[in-house]
Structure formats: structure tokens, C-alpha cells
Amino acid sequence: MKKTTQKQVVNPWAVSGGKIDYDKLIDKFGCQRIEESLINRVQRLTSRQPHVFLRRGVFFAHRDFNLILDSYERGEKFYLYTGRGPSSESLHLGHLIPFLFTKYLQEAFNVPLVIQITDDEKCIFKNLNPEDSKRFGRENVKDIIACGFDVTKTFIFSNFDYVSSKFYENIVVTGKCVTRNKIDGTFGFTGEDPVAKYSFPAVQAVPSFSSSFPHLFEEDIPCLIPCAIDQDPYFRMTRDVAPRLGYRKPALIESSFFPALRGKNGKMSASDANSAIYMNDSAKDIKKKINGAVSGGRDNMDDHKKYGANLEEDIPFKYLSFFLEDDAELEHIRKEYGEGRMLTGAVKMRLTRVLTEIVENHRRARAAVTEQMVDAFMAARPLPSMFE
Amino acid sequence: MKKTTQKQVVNPWAVSGGKIDYDKLIDKFGCQRIEESLINRVQRLTSRQPHVFLRRGVFFAHRDFNLILDSYERGEKFYLYTGRGPSSESLHLGHLIPFLFTKYLQEAFNVPLVIQITDDEKCIFKNLNPEDSKRFGRENVKDIIACGFDVTKTFIFSNFDYVSSKFYENIVVTGKCVTRNKIDGTFGFTGEDPVAKYSFPAVQAVPSFSSSFPHLFEEDIPCLIPCAIDQDPYFRMTRDVAPRLGYRKPALIESSFFPALRGKNGKMSASDANSAIYMNDSAKDIKKKINGAVSGGRDNMDDHKKYGANLEEDIPFKYLSFFLEDDAELEHIRKEYGEGRMLTGAVKMRLTRVLTEIVENHRRARAAVTEQMVDAFMAARPLPSMFE
Q1: What Å distances lie between residue B111 and B67, B96, B210, B312, B387, CA to CA?
Q2: For chain B: N or C, fewer Cβ within 10 A?
Q3: pLDDT digits (tens, 9 = 90+) for B266-316
Q4: What would the mean pLDDT of A136-148 be, rounded to a whole number?
């Protein structure tokens, strides 16, 4: 007899299998859940309220984040590394999550940050030509800068443009430590795949090693990677390899997926425009898209009042839990909507206001990003604030 | 019943199977034999006697060399590309063959030349660390410069040091055009091999494309690669890929292997010091090694006088046919020795004189190579003579 349960597949190119079971994922990947005590420790060490994404479990798993906090407490520096695969010209809300969170971490811990634009990856995996990948990459960098990163602490680089001696050397020695079988097992490649795919995992791995950036780091300092959990396979591989190269294992802090507006529980995808709010959507687009979102409200008013909304299924409420900053108001909506006293329309309207404001603010910030600013962020240079 | 004939294996990492059948190799690889008429055409076009390696069939096979001559005849430029894998600090005579021949081609056709030092390859395949690979590479560059290349026409680069934007972009797009199965089939890799090996073929391929050197070439000009025939698999792959990228297929001119002193017919190997003459051997070493070489002289004087030497098996005579420039003298030795009137000792003595002179001259030339000269050859710069 054939089993009919779908297998849960999570890797950087596929998130499938219906509702994602994050507990299972933590077990399968072997990372750790972020406990209340860890969040409290962050609050104590940074003397500020933890980011809403941390308080509300958007970032829910980690690897060795506690060790990063240990060394921070001893007064040692670390650096942040995150990235972006430029598959399209405009970002959607889901893409912004790691950057908003990374900005918080950078400010709270006052640490340098490197951001890898994997234009080579999108050229390989999405069959874009290098020119389009690079153009998308540069447009995406404007969105990233618009999140408010500090140019004196942030180095953004394109793989196509930055590749250099020590960076390439680390790619080679990393690739020496991983068999092809291991890559096939981790990423699901087969013999029919282009060999360029096999080269890429090491390229995403090496920004985890401070020696890849000789202009930034004079000594080996630890790395913390904020990312969505689908990137975990890259960094499991990186952590396996690091000790064999005499490098530190990077630490990770990992988010769940931002849900699609119309989909069930999968990852928001740039390939279905209606399932995502784009950072260049108009107020009208946003309103329309939110009105079409999957709701947990009941089919008729009587049932709604009797049973309350199904908050587990309600995408607008989920979105509010990501983006409505006021804890008290969110709690109020949870109670009123969950107990049927508040209606779907009101929740959607509140979300429309929240997101319209975020998107409008982002659009204004992005419009102020000049080509010169992009060049400044992407110049291979020492970061003066490193030596404060 | 099991067949006992050994299979002939020729790829960049293995030359085995006893006596190499070069006719079979030409058939198997699908390249063309260099005919007398092609050699005469080279003589006519360059107005000089063709190099001894061409006259005597050391370089015996090609791909599209005739097309290079066609475009040269039309007054169009081409460039030369060859390379060196720095597996040890010192070169042996066999290593020098492609460089001596390339120098002749550069002078005869007055064309620019790029030389790739594959320090990354040796790090991956020979398990050297990057520092040793780079150090060996720089020492080897001194030997290469000592061959007499013109710095105004020659760019030598280390893969670890040179890797840059357009070069890497060509690596990526090349790797997109080749499946992993194809790489396995061509190079014999398996799942247990480190994934870094899979990345390398594209790295050796891309210097065949003039766009990989934006500081050298403003337009797409054709490439001619002088190399030993064991490098053919790389460039078969490159020639398959080139049209899909809108690039020209590189042309090739390919040599047979330089025989080992003590081995049978295989390739001279850097891993057995006694089977090779090194460019830093003393006159005494050279004499001793040549005395120990496999001879085609007969077991006793009577047989020798009766049957003559077996020239096919005689390594000293083979070496003379590579390095004794005087055609008449070589012909004389062939006749006298082959008919038993000249003895093995005399042939070995003649070879010792020839090689001692070559090695001494090389040593003097190498001693005059300064670090500044190495830097000058390896600087990424335009070559002024390109624009003559």
C-alpha cells in the first residue's frame, strides 16, 4: 500500500508538502528552538525591547546564537551576514523580513554587516542571463538600502562583481571538503543538472568566514547569519566544513516563512504576483490584494459570532502579527476577532492601513537612494566603525 | 573469457595503458593529424623554418589550426593560450615543451599570449594547500619567463590571484551549459570526489574566450591553444559550449607526451624524480640519469652490430629527436645507431651534452628573472603590442 501523506520538502528551491511543521523541521535539521530565556537574554544584553519578529516567534530557531551572545558579553565583536537572490526587479514584503530583522540586530549589537547579492545563483538556477541578474541585483540593493542600513557598518556585494582572491580561495578549499554525493543529498541535484549548480553552495558558504573579506576583518571573528530556515542546508554544510578549514562555525538565527496571501502555508513566492504584496504596489493594489486574501472568518455571521475566526487559517491576522508593532492592539484583535466580535472586513482594513503605510514609507526611502549611495555601499573598503 | 588487453586511458590526471597509440587517440578524440601540407603552410605564412617540434611531429594533432591560419592570412589577429599546473617547485624538461613551442608561435605570428597558472587545480587535485600552490606557481612562472617570453605581449596569471568579474561570469555561464553527467563522463569523476573538482573544468575553459580578459581584448578574437594532448578533454568541452555562449571555438595544436627516462612510453611524471630531467639538475645528475635511461641498444656487441639499435625503444635517441636542433646530425645518428655502427654510450654522451647545455642556459636565464619581472608579467594590464 502506498502512503498518501506528502513528504515535507524544504530546501532553498522548494518549499512544499502543505502546512509546514516547524517543530518537525527543527528536529529534522537539528537546530534549536529560540526559548523565552534566550529572548530575555537578548533584551538584557542590548538594553532594548527585542524586535517584534523575535518576540512573536517569526525568528524561531537558531544554531549557536547563545555562543554569539557569550562572546558579545565578553566584549568580543562578531559580524552579521545575510543575502538576497535577485530573481526579480522588485521585492515583496516577505523578502524584507530578514533585512528588517538584520537592521535591528546591527543597531542593537552595533556590529558590521555583509550582504551577499547572489546574482550568480539566479543566473544559474533561474536561467537569467548575467546582465539581467546583475540589473535585478542592483535594483534590489536599492530596496535593501531603503531599509535604513548604516553605510559605515555595511558592505553589500554582488558575487559577479566582488569575486576576488581570498574569497575564491575560500570557495576552493570549501569545495574540497564536500563530496559530490553530499551535495546531491543536501540539495537534491542529479546528473542532468548543470555543473554550475554544484559550484554554488560553496559561494554562499564563504561569506560566513571572516577571512573572505580581507578589507573588513584583520582577524577571525565569529559570524551570525539571520535568514529564513530554507537556507539552513547551506549553512549546515558550512558548519560541517568550517572546523576542517580552521574557521569558526557560523551561528544562525532562522525565521519561518512569510505566508502567501492566497496560498495555504507555503512560502510567499515572487512568481505569483497576486499572492504577494510588492514594495512597489499602489495603495489600491494593496487593498485589492488584502481583500482577496485567505480568511479565517466563518461563512456566515451567526457562525462567526458563535465560533469566532479561525486565526490559524487567517492570513490578514498572520500579517498583522508580523507587522502591527503595538502588542496591546494585536492582543485586542486576537481576542475580539478570535471570539467573533470583530469581523474579517475590519481586520483587513486595519492590515491595509498598516501595510500601506509600510509600503509608502519604503517607497519614499527607496526614491531617495541614489546610484552614488549604491556605489558607496558596494565599494570594497574598510568599515571605519569596525575600529571604534 | 576475460580480455587481457589494457584500455588506453588519457585524461589530464592519468596516462596509462602502456604504449600510447597516437593514431587511435586522434580517432577517439576526433581531432586532426597535422599533415605535411599544413606545416608547409606555416612555413610560408611565417617566412621561417617551422619549429623542430612541428617538423618532427612532437606537435602532431590539431583542431581548426587551419582556420586560425585562414584568419591570420586575412590579416586578423588571434591570441595564444597555454597553462601550467604548479604541482612542484621545479619544472622538468617535459614541462618546458609547450612553452618552448608557444614562444616560437608567439614570435612567428607576433601575437599576444595568456598563460594560466592553475594553482587552484593543484590545490584541489593534488591536495596542496593554497599557499604551497601559489608559491609553486610563482616559482614556475620564473621558469616560464626564463623561456624568453616578451613581457609586452604576454600576460601570466594565477587563478587564485586573477579571478575577477568577467572571468567569473564566463565560468558561471560555461558551467550552466555542461551537465554533471557530461563532466563525469569526460573526466571520470564519481560521487566520492570533492565538489571542487566539478568546478574546475570551466575555470580552465574560460581563458579560451577573449572576453575573459577585458583589459586585453576589446573585441572577440580567436584563440589558439598549444598543449599536450591529455588536455584535449577540457577543450572538447570548451568547443561544445562556445557556440551556445556566442563565442568562437578555440583552436588547438597538440603534442604527444615526452617519454619518461626509465618508463616505457607514458608521460614523464613529476612524481618520480629519476624518470625526469629537472631544470635545476646538475650536470652530474643529468649524466647519471641519462646513463640509467631505457636503451634500445642490443644486449651484446655482436647483436648490436648485426641488428642495430631498436630506435623505437631507445629513450636517449627519442630525447635527441626533441632537442637536437641539427636535422642532418640527427639523421646521421638515426642511421649509424639504427644500423649498429654507433654505440649506446656515444648516443648517451651526445644527449648529455645537448641537455646539459639546455639546462645550463635555462638556469642562467632563470637566475636573471627578478621578482619585479614576475610582477610585471602578472600585472593585469593592456598589452601595448596588441595595438601595433
Answers
A1: 16, 20, 13, 36, 11
A2: N
A3: 555 555 677 899 999 999 999 999 999 999 988 888 999 999 999 989 999
A4: 97
- Give chain B positions within 8 Å (CB) of A197: 180
Residue A5 has pLDDT above 60, yes or no: no
Check residue B41 and give its pLDDT: 98
pLDDT tens digits along A281-328: 999 999 999 999 999 988 888 999 999 999 989 999 999 999 999 999
* Cα–Cα dist B116/B158, whole Å: 6
Residue A63 pairs in a beta bridge with: A252
Per-residue b or e along A239-272, where b marks 16 or more CB atoms closer than 10 Å to that residue's CB: bebbeebebbbbbbbbbbbbbbbeeebbbbebee
Q: CB of B169 within 8 Å of any CB in chain A? A: yes
Rounded to 5 degrees, what are φ and ψ at A146?
-65, -15
| C-beta atoms surrounding B2 within 10 Å | 3
Taking CA atoms, B45 is separated from B221, B227, B251, in Å, by 19, 22, 18
> Tell me: the pLDDT tens digits for B353-377?
999 999 999 999 999 999 999 999 9
| C-alpha–C-alpha distance, residues A165 and A309, integer Å | 57
Give per-residue pLDDT as tens, A31-54. Answer: 999 999 999 999 999 999 999 999
Alpha-helix residue ranges (DSSP H) falling in chain A: 22-29, 36-46, 52-55, 65-73, 93-109, 119-125, 130-146, 159-162, 165-176, 180-187, 195-205, 232-241, 283-291, 301-307, 315-323, 327-338, 344-367, 371-378
* A26 compared with B79, residue with greater pLDDT: B79
Range B98-102, long-range pairs (CB < 8 A, 24+ positions): B98/B226, B98/B227, B98/B228, B98/B255, B99/B144, B99/B147, B99/B149, B100/B51, B100/B53, B100/B147, B101/B51, B101/B53, B101/B54, B101/B58, B101/B59, B101/B226, B101/B255, B102/B226
Instruction: Give the separation between CA B210 and CA B79, rounded to whole angstroms.
Output: 8
Residues of chain A contacting B184 with CB distance shorter than 8 Å: 191
B18-261 folds as Rossmann fold (3.40.50)
**Tally of CB atoms within 10 A around A387:** 7
Long-range Cβ contact pairs of B13-20 (< 8 A, separation 24 or more): B13/B125, B13/B187, B13/B188, B14/B188, B15/B230, B15/B257, B15/B266, B15/B267, B16/B266, B18/B264, B18/B265, B19/B264, B19/B265, B20/B256, B20/B257, B20/B265, B20/B266
The SS3 of residue B383 is coil
- Inspect the interface and report whether the beta carbons of A180 and B190 lie closer than 8 Å: yes
* B6 pLDDT higher than 60: no
Chain B residue at shortest CA distance from A181: B191
Q: Quick one: A197 exposed, middle or buried, by C-beta within 10 A (0-12, 13-18, 19+)?
A: buried
What is the predicted pLDDT for the residue at B330? 96
Q: Which fold has domain A9-261?
A: Rossmann fold (3.40.50)
A341 in reach of chain B (CB within 8 A): no
Looking at CA atoms only, how far is residue B121 from chain A in angstroms? 9
Q: How far apart are CA B118 and CA B100, in angstroms?
A: 19
**Largest CA-CA distance found in chain A, in angstroms, rounded:** 68
Strands in B79-84's sheet, in edge-to-edge order, are B32-33, B59-63, B251-255, B223-228, B79-84, B113-117, B154-158
Q: Where are the domains of chain A?
A: 9-261, 273-367
> How far B92 CA lies from chain A's nearest CA (Å)?
27
3-state secondary structure of A315: helix
CB A162 within 8 A of CB A381: no
Nearest CA in chain B to A178: B194
Residue-averaged pLDDT of chain B = 92
- What's the CATH number for A273-367? 1.10.240.10
